[in-house]
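Hi support team,

I've been running sequence recovery on a batch of backbones for a student project. Most finish fine, but this one hangs at about 90% for roughly twenty minutes before it completes. I'm not sure whether the input is malformed or the queue is just slow. I've pasted the structure tokens below so you can try to reproduce it. Let me know if you need the job ID as well.

Thanks,
M.K.
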């Protein structure tokens, strides 16, 4: 059994929610009035859908943007990526435990073992 403190739980949930907010804010939006380029007479190519970023790749990109660290090696970045995957797994396990409204707040959260 592992125990997750409220602080760790809050940090993990903030990370998950901030990733979704950042992804929605960084989606480019264009309007025809803002486009200074004239329209081409040839038919445009069919746009290919962008492949979505994996959660850990997105979070690593955000961390690299906010806290640039040119001294990190590829092995160090992979270690950070593994930590992000682990934290997301913990958040998913916490989210999977059903709670009713009559359960009071706890100082720690004990995750039942996986079955």
């Amino acid at each position: 059994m592992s125990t997750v403190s409220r602080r760790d739980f809050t940090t993990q949930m903030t990370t998950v929610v901030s990733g979704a907010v950042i992804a929605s804010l960084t989606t480019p939006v264009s309007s025809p009035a803002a486009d200074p380029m004239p329209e081409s007479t040839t038919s445009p190519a069919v746009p290919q859908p962008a492949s979505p970023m994996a959660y850990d790749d997105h979070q690593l990109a955000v961390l690299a943007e906010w806290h640039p660290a040119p001294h990190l090696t590829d092995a160090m970045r992979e270690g950070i990526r593994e930590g992000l995957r682990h934290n997301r797994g913990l958040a998913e396990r916490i989210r999977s435990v059903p709670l009713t409204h009559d359960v009071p707040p706890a100082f720690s959260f004990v995750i039942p073992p996986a079955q």
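--
Follow-up from support: It reproduced on our side and the slowdown came from queue contention, not your input. The chain has one domain: 6-96. No action needed from you.
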